[in-house]
């Protein structure tokens, strides 16, 4: 816990040093515009993930299915890191998008497997055809009762 607290306290100082180094290399105005552009990309990424979550929740997967999906969670982390102003957090966000790094982070964190969306709920009054896959020994043909054949 003390290490995490120290890292959180050191991060703003390191970000300021990184900004000064980038600004001295490309100019102050360009560094500000670059930082603003990257933050807007982060906001767009988070908005895209939020839209996906809404669609998935409506289709029956629920919000937890997208929260537990490792791919989406790392994309969300990258978007959040891009949104936070600073070049160090941006570099960490880029690393969260690299497939090899994402796989190593997944193994390190040990998150859940992607949760498949559930079947859509039936509407009242509407019959839906269902399919069951049974072996030949698991079923027998039955003649319907009370029905007239046409």
UniProtKB/TrEMBL annotation:
Keywords from the UniProt entry: Membrane, Transmembrane, Transmembrane helix
The protein's name: UPF0716 protein FxsA
Origin: domain of life: Bacteria
Lineage: Bacteria, Pseudomonadati, Pseudomonadota, Alphaproteobacteria, Hyphomicrobiales
A matching Pfam family: FxsA
NCBIfam families: PRK11463.1-2 (NF008528)
Residues that span the membrane, as ranges: 7-26, 32-53, 74-98
Keyword Transmembrane helix: yes
GO CC, alphabetical: membrane
Biased composition annotated in UniProt, kind: Basic and acidic residues: 133-150
Keyword Flavoprotein: no
Organism of origin: Hansschlegelia beijingensis
Region annotation (Disordered) ranges: 116-150
InterPro entries (UniProt xref): FxsA (IPR007313)
């Amino acid at each position: 816990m003390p290490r995490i607290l120290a890292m959180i306290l050191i991060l703003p100082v390191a970000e300021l040093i990184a900004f000064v180094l980038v600004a001295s290399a490309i100019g102050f105005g360009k560094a500000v515009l670059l930082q603003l552009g990257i933050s807007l990309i982060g906001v767009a990424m988070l908005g895209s993930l939020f839209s996906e979550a809404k669609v998935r929740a409506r289709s029956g997967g629920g919000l937890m299915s997208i929260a537990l999906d490792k791919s989406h969670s790392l994309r969300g982390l990258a978007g959040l890191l891009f949104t936070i102003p600073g070049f160090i957090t941006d570099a960490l966000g880029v690393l969260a998008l690299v497939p090899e790094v994402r796989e190593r982070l997944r193994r390190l964190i040990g998150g859940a497997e992607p949760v498949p969306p559930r079947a859509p709920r039936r509407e009242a009054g509407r019959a839906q055809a269902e399919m069951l896959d049974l072996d030949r020994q698991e079923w027998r043909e039955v003649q319907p009762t009370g029905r007239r054949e046409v």
